[in-house]
Amino acid sequence: MSPEDGVKAVMLARCTICKHLGMDAEDVAVTGSFEEMCGAFVTLKRHPTGMLRGCVGYPLPYMTMRESIVQSAIGACHDDRFPPLRPKDIQECTVEVTILTSPEEILHTSPEDLQSKIEIGRDGLMMELMGHRGLLLPQVPVEQGWDVTEYLQGISLKTCGMKDAWMRGEVSMKRFHGTSFVEDSPNGSIGAGHI
After folding, report:
1. CA–CA dist 114, 111 (Å, integer)
2. What is the pTM (predicted TM-score) of this model?
């Protein structure tokens, strides 16, 4: 994704949120790569603390990039971990958009083999075990200062509440890459994120 498209992606997410909340917002025209099928996440963080305020997305390429961003932005307003977003809340939040590649299975023969195939800052993870699913974006271990083992424990806890679940033989682990763009302050300058 080009830096110009990254800026437009964040502008589209903020515009969608504002309109969803009944606020005035200028339309953002997007074409070209925004019509390609891909997954996306929209993350809202309180400024300046950086505390999470909402994060919702679609990891699989079921929709166009434009539609993935729009639906993720609306979803982030209603992340069930938080109260519904209000107009005053979005004025205190930064908006981040992460565009995802299609997930690919990480074929591995042992827990050690799995660890060797994961790179912090590059790989987002999707885990499935016993009917439970979890996902962490590539920027999460960077922001948390995790090594590979801590990252695998983090995705395990999110997936099924057991930090060593990644070591089980029947676990399915997929990786994906992401391109992230984020505001430096609410409605501020937009640049590349952590990845």
Report:
1. 5
2. 0.92
